[in-house]
Design brief:
The complex is a heterodimer. By secondary structure, chain A is mainly α. Chain A is 72% helix and 1% strand. By secondary structure, chain B is of the alpha/beta class. In chain B, strand 21 and strand 22 form a beta hairpin. The N and C termini of chain B lie far apart (56 Å). The chains are: A mainly alpha, B alpha/beta.
C-alpha cells in the first residue's frame, strides 16, 4: 500500500492530477451541476481538441523536440475538411483527407528535422507558417459548415453515457500505446535523454525522429476533426492558440521540456487543468477582451506551479557514489 | 584468414591530428591492451572501430573481409561492440531497458517483450552479481555499477570483437576480478578483445599482448611477457618516467597548526557522525571498499549534502551552499568529468575561469602559463574543452581549482580514466599544493594510487572508511596496498548497517 502510494506520488503526472482536483472543487462552487455527466460531456466537447494536441506535443517533447506547427495544422485540417464537404465530398472521406493532410505536414517536419537535421524549433516554426498560410489560402474567411448530424453526434452521449469526444481521445491513446509498448517507445525516451548516447547504442535515431513528427501531425489532424465537430464550421485561424496551450498542458502535466521524462496521461491532466481554469474565467464573467490576458496568466501560473512541484518532488540527487 | 586488422587508419579534426597512422592486428581470442597517454588517439581508434567516427583514410579487415561501419548500428550488426568511457547509458531508463536498447526484444514483431527483456537482462546481470538492480533507474546507480552495466550491455550483444575503453578505472577490486574472469571466458570463446586501460596491473594480469600508442601513432606491439612496467611507461612518454612524488618539502609554515576541524558532521545516507582534524600541508588519502561513505564525506564537506559547520583556518564557518564553500577556500575535484567537471561545449579558457572570475570575481588567471605548467596539450584556449583528451580535460579542471589557491582540496577519484603520465602529473600538483600549506583530501578507488601519493609525503595519512565511519588510520611505512585492503574489510566489531 505504502509502495503504491510512493509510486503514485513519484509519478510525473501526479502534481497535475492534484491541480485538477483542487480546481474541480473550486469550479464546483461556481458551476451549476458541475459534477454531472452532462457537464463532463460538454467540457469534453470543448477541450478534446486541446487534449489531443497536448498528446501530440508530449510525444515530441519526450524526444527532446518541439512542434510549433500543431496549431496551424489544426487550422489547416479544419478548413480542408469543411471545404471538401462544401465541394460535396462525403464527410468520412473528407476527414480521412484531413488527417492525411496533418500527416503530410508531420512528414515534412520529420524529413526536415530527422533527415536534414534542422533544429525542431526553426523547422516547425517554418512549417507552421506554411500550414497557416495554406489554411488562409484555402479559406480566407471563416465560413462553410459540416453536416449538422456530425455536430450533433459529436455532442451526444453514445449509449446514453459515453461522451462522443471520448472516442477521439481513445484513438489518440491507441496511437500513444503504439509508441509506449513497442521498442519505439523506449527509443523515444532514450533519445529524449541523450541523442548521442542513444545513437551510439545502435538506435536509428533519425528514423525515430521522423516518426515522432509524423505522429504529431496525425494527432493534430485528429484534434482538428474533433474541433470541427465542436464548431461545425471552418475558420483558418481557429487553431492558433493550440500550439502554446499544448506545450503548456504538457509541461503542467509533468512532461519535461528537456526530454525523456513524463507521459501522455500528464498531458491529458494538464489539458483538463487548463480547461477548468478557462471555464472558471468564463463563469466569473470576465469581460471578453480580458479573456486572452486571463488565460495567458493561467498558462503561466500553471507552468510555474508545475515546475515548482516538480522541483520539490525530485530534489537533485547529488550523490553519485552510494551503493545502497 | 585475418581475424581483425586495422591498416594505416588516420583521422584529423580540423587542425588537430587525432590519429596520424595506426595499424594493428589481433587473433581470435587474443586480449590486446592498447596503452597510450592523453591524446594518443586510442579513444578515437575505438570510436572508429565502433562506427561512431569515420576515418579519413586506411582500412579495417574483420574476419577476412573489409569492414565498414557507417554507424554504431552497423558495427553492432557485425558483432563489433564498444564499451565507452563516457558510458552509453541513459539515466532515465532502468538498467534492463538500457541493457536491451541496442536490440529490444519483441513479441509479434511489434510490441516490446518485457518478459524477454527481463530474462536477457538477468542472464547477463547474474554473471556480474548485479541481478538485484535490473529494475533500478540508472540515475540512482553509483558510478562503479554504471560501468558494470555498460560492460553488461556489451556482453548482451554477443560480441565477436569487443573494444573496452577505460572501464576498470571506476570499478572496485572485487568488480575488476569479476570483469577479468568474464573477459577471459570471452577470449576462450574466440572473441577478440581490445582493452584500453591505464592500470598496469590489469594489463599485465589480463592481456596477452600490448600495443603502445603515442601522439596518434602506434609505437609498437609486444608480447606481454617481453615487457615490464617501466619499459611501457618509457614508451608511453618517450622519456624516463619521473618519480611519482617529489622530494619532501623541508618546512611547511604552520605545519603543526590545525587547518580544518570537523566535529560531528552527519553523513546522511549512513546516519553516522564524522570527526576529523587536518593540519596545514597534510595529504589525506581516503580508502575503503566501494560505497562506504568516501564520496559522501568529501561531498558533505563541500556543502553538497546540506548545510555543515566546521572550523577552517581558525574561523568557524557555516557552509550552507557550495558557493559558500568555494568562497571559504574549499575546492572539489570530481572524477566524473562529464557531470561535475567540465562544461563540455565551452572553451578551455571559460572552463579554466569558471571558479576564479565567475564564482569569485577575481582577476583573470594567466591561462597560458598555468596550462603549460600542467603540460596540457591544446591548440588555443578558445577551443571547446571537449576537443581535448580526457586527461587533458581533467588537468584543465584541476587548474581551475589550483588557480584560486584553495585551502582544502577535496578530490573524489580525480584520476579516473587518466593515463599514467598525466596521473603522475596530477599527483605532483597535489604534492605542490600541500607544500604551499593547503591540505588535500583524496578519495580513490585505486589503492595503489593512494599508496603512491601518501607514502613518501612528509605529512600524510590514509584513512580507511567502513559503513560511513573512519575505522583505521595508516601512516608512514604502514601505508601499503596490503594494509589498506586488510583494513578495508569488514570484521568483528564493525557492523555493516
Amino acid at each position: 500500500m505504502n509502495r503504491t502510494l510512493n509510486k503514485m506520488t513519484n509519478w510525473t503526472s501526479f502534481p497535475s492530477l492534484v491541480l485538477i482536483i483542487v480546481l474541480a472543487i473550486v469550479n464546483s462552487f461556481f458551476v451549476h451541476k458541475f459534477f454531472s455527466l452532462n457537464y463532463a460531456s460538454s467540457f469534453l466537447t470543448s477541450y478534446t481538441p486541446l487534449i489531443i494536441c497536448a498528446m501530440a506535443q508530449t510525444i515530441v517533447l519526450l524526444g527532446r523536440g518541439i512542434d510549433l506547427s500543431i496549431g496551424s495544422v489544426v487550422s489547416l485540417v479544419n478548413v480542408t475538411v469543411v471545404t471538401l464537404v462544401g465541394m460535396g465530398w462525403s464527410l468520412p472521406l473528407a476527414m480521412l483527407v484531413g488527417v492525411l493532410t496533418g500527416m503530410a505536414v508531420g512528414i515534412l517536419n520529420g524529413f526536415v528535422i530527422g533527415i536534414l537535421r534542422v533544429t525542431p524549433l526553426l523547422a516547425t516554426l517554418a512549417t507552421s507558417s506554411i500550414a497557416a498560410g495554406a489554411a488562409l489560402w484555402i479559406m480566407p474567411y471563416p465560413g462553410g459548415s459540416v453536416s449538422i448530424d456530425y455536430v450533433l453526434w459529436y455532442q451526444s452521449l453514445i449509449f446514453g453515457f459515453i461522451p462522443a469526444p471520448l472516442i477521439f481521445i481513445v484513438v489518440a491513446l491507441l496511437i500513444w500505446f503504439l509508441w509506449r509498448y513497442t521498442p519505439a517507445g523506449l527509443q523515444l525516451y532514450a533519445m529524449g535523454k541523450d541523442i548521442h548516447k542513444t545513437y551510439v547504442s545502435g538506435v536509428p535515431v533519425h528514423r525515430t525522429q521522423f516518426f515522432i513528427y509524423m505522429t504529431s501531425g496525425i494527432l493534430s489532424g485528429i484534434a482538428a476533426i474533433a474541433l470541427t465537430g465542436n464548431t461545425g464550421a471552418g475558420d483558418p485561424l481557429i487553431g492558433e492558440s493550440y500550439t502554446l496551450h499544448a506545450v503548456a498542458a504538457s509541461v503542467i502535466g509533468g512532461v519535461s521540456l528537456m526530454g525523456g521524462s513524463g507521459d501522455t496521461y500528464g498531458s491529458i491532466f494538464g489539458s483538463i487543468f487548463l480547461g477548468l481554469a478557462f471555464q472558471l474565467v468564463f463563469v466569473l464573467h470576465f469581460p471578453s477582451y480580458y479573456q486572452d490576458l486571463a488565460s495567458g496568466v493561467i498558462v503561466l501560473v500553471g507552468i510555474i506551479g508545475a515546475s515548482l512541484m516538480k522541483l520539490r518532488s525530485s530534489r537533485p540527487r547529488i550523490m553519485s557514489t552510494s551503493s545502497r | 584468414m585475418t581475424f581483425f586488422a586495422v591498416k594505416s587508419i588516420a583521422k584529423r579534426y580540423g587542425s588537430v591530428v587525432a590519429i596520424q597512422e595506426a595499424s594493428l592486428e589481433i587473433k581470435p581470442g587474443e586480449i590486446r591492451a592498447i596503452l597510450g597517454g592523453n591524446g594518443s588517439g586510442k579513444s578515437t581508434l575505438a570510436k572508429i572501430i565502433g562506427g561512431a567516427v569515420s576515418p579519413d583514410s586506411g582500412e579495417i579487415i574483420f574476419e577476412g573481409k573489409p569492414y565498414r561501419a557507417a554507424s554504431p548500428a552497423q558495427a553492432k550488426q557485425q558483432k563489433v561492440i564498444i564499451t565507452s568511457q563516457e558510458l552509453s547509458l541513459l539515466t532515465n531508463l532502468t538498467v534492463e531497458e538500457n541493457l536491451v536498447l541496442p536490440a529490444i526484444p519483441t513479441k509479434g514483431k511489434l510490441f516490446t517483450n518485457r518478459k524477454e527483456m527481463r530474462k536477457q537482462a538477468l542472464q547477463v546481470l547474474d554473471r556480474v552479481g548485479l541481478s538485484h538492480i535490473a529494475e533500478v533507474l540508472v540515475e540512482y546507480l553509483p558510478e562503479n555499477q554504471k560501468f558494470m552495466v555498460e560492460f553488461c550491455k556489451a556482453l548482451l550483444q554477443q560480441p565477436k570483437l569487443l573494444v573496452i575503453d577505460e572501464i576498470t578505472s571506476a570499478l572496485f577490486r572485487e568488480e575488476v576480478e569479476i570483469f577479468k574472469q568474464i573477459v577471459k571466458e570471452l577470449s576462450q570463446q574466440g572473441v577478440g578483445i581490445l582493452f584500453i586501460s591505464h592500470r598496469m596491473g590489469e594489463i599485465f594480469s589480463l592481456c596477452d599482448s600490448v600495443t603502445v600508442m603515442r601522439n596518434g601513432q602506434v609505437i609498437g606491439t609486444y608480447n606481454i611477457a617481453d615487457v615490464n612496467e617501466d619499459m611501457l611507461v618509457e614508451m608511453l612518454t618517450g622519456t624516463k618516467a619521473k618519480s611519482a612524488v617529489r622530494p619532501a618539502v623541508e618546512h611547511i609554515e604552520d605545519a603543526d597548526k590545525t587547518l580544518l576541524s570537523v566535529r560531528d558532521m552527519l553523513l546522511p545516507s549512513f546516519g553516522t557522525r564524522i570527526n576529523l582534524d587536518i593540519k596545514h600541508g597534510e595529504m589525506i588519502g581516503i580508502a575503503g571498499l566501494q560505497g562506504q561513505g568516501q564520496s559522501e564525506f568529501v561531498r558533505a564537506l563541500f556543502g553538497m549534502l546540506g548545510p555543515v559547520r566546521f572550523r577552517l583556518d581558525d574561523k568557524e564557518v557555516h557552509i550552507h551552499s557550495v558557493r559558500r564553500a568555494v568562497k571559504e577556500g574549499m575546492a572539489f575535484l570530481s572524477g566524473d568529468r562529464e557531470r561535475e567537471g567540465t562544461f563540455s561545449i565551452r572553451s578551455i579558457s571559460e572552463n579554466l575561469e569558471a571558479v576564479n572570475t565567475s564564482a569569485l570575481s577575481r582577476k583573470p588567471l594567466n591561462q597560458k602559463e598555468l596550462l603549460d605548467s600542467y603540460g596540457v596539450k591544446f591548440d588555443n584556449v578558445k577551443q571547446p574543452i571537449r576537443t581535448l583528451s580526457g586527461g587533458n580535460q581533467q588537468k584543465v579542471v584541476i587548474a581551475r581549482w589550483t588557480g584560486v589557491k584553495p585551502k582544502v582540496l577535496l578530490a573524489d577519484d580525480p584520476t579516473k580514466g587518466i593515463d599514467v603520465q598525466a596521473r603522475r602529473d596530477v599527483h605532483a600538483i597535489f604534492s605542490d599544493l600541500t607544500a604551499s600549506g593547503s591540505a588535500v583530501i583524496i578519495v580513490s578507488s585505486d589503492d595503489e594510487e593512494l599508496v603512491n601519493l601518501t607514502k613518501n609525503h612528509p605529512n600524510s595519512r590514509v584513512l580507511v572508511m567502513y559503513g560511513g565511519q573512519f575505522v583505521h588510520t595508516l601512516r608512514g611505512d604502514d601505508i601499503t596496498v596490503h594494509n589498506i585492503i586488510s583494513a578495508s574489510l569488514p570484521r568483528e566489531g564493525v557492523e555493516s548497517k
